[in-house]
Amino acid sequence: MKWPDNVANNNKQNIMIRTAASAYADDTQWIAKSKDEAKAISLIADEFFDINDIKINEEKMEIIVVNSEERNEEENFLKIGKNNNKVLVNKGSVPIRILGVWFKADKGDKHTEDIVKKEISTIVKAIKRKHITHAQAIYIINTVLLPP
Q1: CA distance 85 to 30
Q2: CA 33/CA 105 separation, integer angstroms
Q3: What 3-state DSSP class applies to 65?
Q4: Which of 87, 93, 124, 143 has the most crowded CB, counting CB atoms within 10 A?
Q5: How far apart are the C-alpha atoms of 2 and 12, rounded to whole Å?
Q6: How far, in Å, CA of 73 to CA of 77, rounded?
Q7: Please, are residues 125 and 116 in contact by the beta-carbon 8 Å criterion?
Q8: According to the 3-state scheme, what is the secondary structure of the chain?
Q9: Domain-by-domain residue ranges, the chain?
Q10: pTM of the model
C-alpha cells in the first residue's frame, strides 16, 4: 500500500502490513417455532460458519424448548455443526443464562430468586470482614450486583 510520507512534496512510501484476522462471537440465540425450523436455521448457520472458517464450540451450546407439544425423550436434541454433534435439550427446570438474563422453560420464578440470593451471598462473603467505605459499598452494589 502506498502511504503519503510527506504531503508537502507528495512523497509516498510503500507500506506492507500482514495481520491475522481474529473474531470472537458470544451469546448467539436462534429462535424457532418448531424443530424443523430450528434445523433449517442450524443448516444456514453451519454453512455460514464453514464459508467464513468459523469454529463453534458445540459443547457450550444449549437448547431451551418452551411450550413444546412433543415430549418424546429420544427426540430431545438437535444435530449441529460439521460433525453433526448432538446438542441435548435443556431440562425445563434448569435455568440458562442469555446475555446476563436467566431463563428456564418451566413456569415460575423460584430459580431467579435462588440465583439472586446466591450472587448476593457470594458478594457478602467476599466483603464481610473488609473495612470498606460507604462509597465503596455503593460502587460494589452498582457495578457488581446491579450491572448496567
Answers
A1: 17
A2: 14
A3: coil
A4: 87
A5: 6
A6: 9
A7: no
A8: CEEEEECCCCEEEECCCCCCCCCCCCCCCCCCCCHHHHHHHHHHHHHHHHHCCCCCCHHHCCECCCCCCCCCHHHCEEEECCCCEEEEECCCCCCEEECCEEECCCCCCHHHHHHHHHHHHHHHHHHCCCCCCHHHHHHHHHHHHCCC
A9: 108-148
A10: 0.57
Contact 122, 145 (CB under 8 A): no
Distance, CA of 100 to CA of 119 (rounded, Å): 13
How many Å separate Cα 141 from the centre of its chain? Answer: 24
The values of phi and psi at residue 146, to 5°, are -125, 65
Q: Which three cell numbers stand for residue 138?
A: 455503593
Alpha-carbon distance 94 to 111, whole Å?
Answer: 8
| Residue 51: all three cell numbers together | 464459508
Cell of 12: 509516498
